From TrEMBL:
Name used for this protein in its record: Ferrochelatase
Alphabetical list of PROSITE patterns matching this protein: FERROCHELATASE (PS00534)
UniProt keyword list: Cytoplasm, Heme biosynthesis, Iron, Lyase, Metal-binding, Porphyrin biosynthesis
Gene3D superfamilies per the UniProt record, alphabetical: 3.40.50.1400
CDD domains the record matches: Ferrochelatase_C, Ferrochelatase_N
Organism name: Paraburkholderia dipogonis
Family statement drawn from the similarity comment of this UniProt entry: Belongs to the ferrochelatase family.
Length: 356
């Protein structure tokens, strides 16, 4: 009988917080033409000669400062999401294989797809952990899946989940995460001017001009989340972080906004990253350390970084429902629980015939 699987795909992480491993990871990441959209003959000498020798050591120190006992935060949280999703599906009678892979680094997309196919899975849902679509994230993950299938003779059926930036279940999970933080740490006093920033990963302005929908989707996610939290535009702003290089990036920029808020006398700012489904170096270090230091340096008093949705129950609910939305299109997929029911019914029918 057909067997189904779901593969979660996240960005990637070094295998260890060392300059060597960071160098290897960044070399793969920054060599992707969808990430750095310039001729490789021009970019590679710059990357190998200037970027990697200096950036690898600095990034390794940052990774080391946030490394968890079981590995990098991104890998730990993504693995927990896969485990929780597998349990969620099993509890609902869906015996679906669940795996996770990284676009850059390990576990690789090709390796995990090969493993799922060897386990008998011939229908696979590809679920990128990027709610908002961008060519440099979602599209390159799909590219890698297609590249892996190019080496397979008997290919499985595949369904891709392109985006879920406005899905009500995803928005609800985001709102729940913020409310849980406020329950523990208190809600900002917006009447005195406290602020909420929704910080998304940045993107070069040229990518938007070429037709990438990412910016508009981030704004819609921000508006829907603000509405769910009953916040208006005066209290909740969408900003963008993690700029790289000298080209123009979409804004307003998170770091600059934090400096402006601190200098203007804002007492408290809460920063949440709705576009990141798992905490990583961009949220834990760039926001939680660098962002905090910037805000306090410029005069702010109280800084809060709100954890990403990670493996929270509402987000796993959202992932589960997104998966079921795709599985229902495959009427031929029979889960183990359904097989048991069919065997039982068949046995009962045979017994009736014998009785007659």
């Amino acid at each position: 009988m057909p067997r189904a699987a779901v593969l979660l795909i996240n960005l990637g992480t070094p295998d260890a917080p060392t300059a060597r491993e960071v160098h290897r990871y960044l070399a793969e990441f920054l060599s992707d033409p969808r990430v750095i959209e310039m001729p490789q003959w021009l970019w590679q000498p710059i990357l190998r000669g200037l970027v990697l020798p200096f950036r690898s050591h600095a990034a390794a120190r940052r990774y080391e400062s946030i490394w968890m006992p079981d590995g990098s935060p991104l890998r730990v949280h993504t693995e927990q999401q896969a485990t929780a999703l597998r349990r969620w599906l099993t509890e609902r009678g869906q015996q679906v294989h669940v795996a996770y892979a990284m676009r850059y680094g390990t576990p690789s997309i090709a390796g995990e797809l090969d493993r799922l196919i060897r386990q008998g899975c011939d229908r696979i849902v590809i679920l990128p952990m990027y709610p908002q679509y961008a060519a440099s994230t979602t599209a390159t993950a799909f590219d890698k899946v297609a590249s892996a299938f190019a080496q397979i003779r008997n290919q499985p059926e595949v369904r891709f989940i392109k985006q879920y930036f406005a899905d009500s279940r995803y928005i609800s999970a985001l709102a729940d995460t913020v409310r849980r933080h406020w329950y523990v740490h208190g809600r900002p006093d917006f009447s005195r001017g406290d602020q909420m920033l929704l910080s998304f990963h940045g993107l070069p302005q040229r990518a938007i001009e070429r037709g990438d929908p990412y910016h508009a989707q981030c704004l819609e996610t921000g508006a829907l989340l603000a509405e769910a939290l009953s916040l208006d535009a005066h209290h909740c702003r969408v900003t963008f972080q993690s700029e790289f290089g000298r080209q123009e990036w979409i804004g307003p920029h998170t770091a600059e906004t934090l400096a402006e808020l601190g200098a203007s006398g804002t007492h408290r700012v809460d920063v949440f990253c709705p576009g990141f489904t798992a905490d990583c170096i961009e949220t834990v270090d760039e926001i939680g350390v660098e962002g905090r230091d910037t805000f306090l340096k410029w005069g702010g008093r109280e800084f809060h970084r709100i954890d990403c949705v990670n493996a929270s129950a509402p987000f796993i609910d959202a992932l589960g429902e997104l998966t079921l939305d795709q599985l229902k299109h495959w009427s031929g997929v029979v889960t183990q629980s359904r097989r048991k029911e069919e065997v039982t019914i068949s046995d009962m029918g045979a017994a009736s015939c014998l009785t007659l």
